[in-house]
Write a structure and sequence with these properties.
By secondary structure, the chain is mainly alpha-helical. It contains two helices and no strands. The longest helix has 41 residues. The protein starts with 19 loop residues before the first helix and ends with a helix.
Length: 96
């Protein structure tokens, strides 16, 4: 046994699984489902848009909104993953 003092090892700091960014991602992905499953909110004819009943143009509008929300969620996810990898690399470098 040596009399050399032990070098303390820094505890591994884990990032939380649920973060505000991930909550926003979940909301972006859940919103279209809620909008489409709440049928009583759009099961009507008026207001018509260029002769198209509300029931139809509302659903078509949600196709575009869903696309935009999915793109936003994907971009946020990519940014979150890059930040987590950078954080992990920084923690690994600091523990050496």
């Amino acid at each position: 046994m040596s009399d050399a003092p032990e070098v303390p090892v820094a505890p591994e700091v884990r990032q939380p699984t649920v973060t505000p960014v991930r909550v926003v991602i979940a909301l972006c992905l859940v919103a279209p489902f809620v909008a489409m499953l709440w049928v009583s909110s759009y099961a009507k004819v008026d207001p018509a848009f260029i002769g198209i009943p509300f029931f139809y143009w509302y659903q078509m509008l949600w196709v575009l909104i869903s696309t935009a929300l999915t793109m936003v969620a994907y971009q946020l996810w990519q940014r979150d993953q890059r930040a987590r990898k950078a954080h992990a690399a920084h923690q690994e470098g600091a523990s050496r």
